[in-house]
Amino acid sequence: MKGTSGGGRSRPSTPGATPSRRLHRMTLRSDTRAAKKAGAAHQDNHDYESGDFHDSTISYGDFDIRDESAKMLAMIPPKGLSCLVGLYNEGNTCYLNSCIQCLVHTMPLAASILNGNATLSSNPAGTVLAGSKSFQRRSFSMECGSELAPRRLSEANLITREFRDLLTRMWSSLCPPYSVASASAFLRSLQSWDSQFAGYHQQDAQEAMRSILDGLHESLNRVKSRHYTDIYREYESRPEDELAGITWNYHKSLNDSIIQDIFCGQLQSSIECSVCKKKSHCFDPFLDLSLPLPDQQSGASSLLGSRMGSKWGVSISDCLSLFVAPEALSGHDRYKCSTCKVPQLSTKKLSIYRAPPILVLHLKRFHGSGSFSFRKNDTPVSYPLEGLDLTDYLAATPRRQYYPHGARYDLYAVCNHSGSLGYGHYTAQCKDADGLWYSFNDSSVSTLSEPSIVSSSAYILFYQLRCA
């Protein structure tokens, strides 16, 4: 969505950030969801009363972002375990198998479940990961303001329990290396949680990953009840760095789970009026980033220069540069300036304010070409195995204060898609606990010297923040 124009106050949006569907509805947009009720947003061990978002974290200066990430990333599965288990194709379920392999090789997530760190006494869904029989009855206590109905909470519990059981089996010594497991029970729980995955049609791996993380988050959310307020109505005039802390605190008052701890980052969207030069800022959480992929045939971006015609295609840095490139808002997309009081020509710019411990990059290879048809962009994309640096894409304050030596990431998993939209196949390449790379093609598991660093099939890249 571009900056809105016309009647009513508007503010910048952050397209390309791809939080889960439910989390997207819970971002801080006054134009997407009416505030339910002003007041406190209660969380176990934390009380967020109206006006306290500013007081509790004025900025990120109260703690070290890198130290916070390091604590999460330090978690590893128990020693001696590996996860070299294939998954049966239950009928066009390669999309799910590849997604599962990437998630179970996300070490902080695997460790949180295997080590029991996700079972918190303050967590109303903690009994799910503890294996309690109370799951069958209902492990959530409903309070006024809770987001999900009891039936949906039960479905969220189910997908979490089945994911725990599948992950535990895959990491267990009972499943020897190169054996095969079934994800059929987990598939049924996903179909119950999200009806778009009903049946055995080919699906999109990124959509599956979003839905899985959505269900896990809802089940493991430490927040028992949610109360919504329009943060921007009260705090929009605050300095941008202060506003970043306020909006992040508000988001965490509604969403606090291991999924948020591991995958969630924060995007900044800024719009500058070309007439009065006033800048407006908004901040939104994200679980992954959908990056534009230049079309080689159209020469979509001058940022890429002569690289567009090379056999190496483009780099992931090129895609990130396109993602944060300034965008002119004109015509019907003009932004209504709060100072000028009328829609004006303006420029929008995205940047990453808070880098997540686990960075998930989705390459937008599929796009509509008119008449409800889609086509795939097979442009080869190069990406580093180690040292992907986000410094150039960070907002000014975090770049200067929190990542003075760079925010570098190392690759640990790739979800690949080969073929066309309707007749494609998904596979995964993952780095196991032994530090070696393996290829996962449904039930087949094989060793890799190292994954390809240039690929026309790479679809989702999984990076872990380097904290040392």
UniProtKB/TrEMBL annotation:
<dbReference type="InterPro" id="IPR038765">
    <property type="entry name" value="Papain-like_cys_pep_sf"/>
</dbReference>
<keyword id="KW-0378">Hydrolase</keyword>
<keyword id="KW-0833">Ubl conjugation pathway</keyword>
<keyword id="KW-0788">Thiol protease</keyword>
<dbReference type="InterPro" id="IPR001394">
    <property type="entry name" value="Peptidase_C19_UCH"/>
</dbReference>
<dbReference type="GO" id="GO:0016579">
    <property type="term" value="P:protein deubiquitination"/>
</dbReference>
<dbReference type="GO" id="GO:0006508">
    <property type="term" value="P:proteolysis"/>
</dbReference>
<dbReference type="InterPro" id="IPR050185">
    <property type="entry name" value="Ub_carboxyl-term_hydrolase"/>
</dbReference>
<feature type="region of interest" description="Disordered">
    <location>
        <begin position="1"/>
        <end position="51"/>
    </location>
</feature>
<dbReference type="InterPro" id="IPR028889">
    <property type="entry name" value="USP"/>
</dbReference>
<dbReference type="Pfam" id="PF00443">
    <property type="entry name" value="UCH"/>
</dbReference>
<feature type="domain" description="USP">
    <location>
        <begin position="85"/>
        <end position="466"/>
    </location>
</feature>
<dbReference type="InterPro" id="IPR018200">
    <property type="entry name" value="USP_CS"/>
</dbReference>
<protein>
    <recommendedName>
        <fullName>Ubiquitin carboxyl-terminal hydrolase</fullName>
        <ecNumber>3.4.19.12</ecNumber>
    </recommendedName>
</protein>
<dbReference type="GO" id="GO:0004843">
    <property type="term" value="F:cysteine-type deubiquitinase activity"/>
</dbReference>
<comment type="function">
    <text>Recognizes and hydrolyzes the peptide bond at the C-terminal Gly of ubiquitin. Involved in the processing of poly-ubiquitin precursors as well as that of ubiquitinated proteins.</text>
</comment>
<comment type="similarity">
    <text>Belongs to the peptidase C19 family.</text>
</comment>
<keyword id="KW-0645">Protease</keyword>
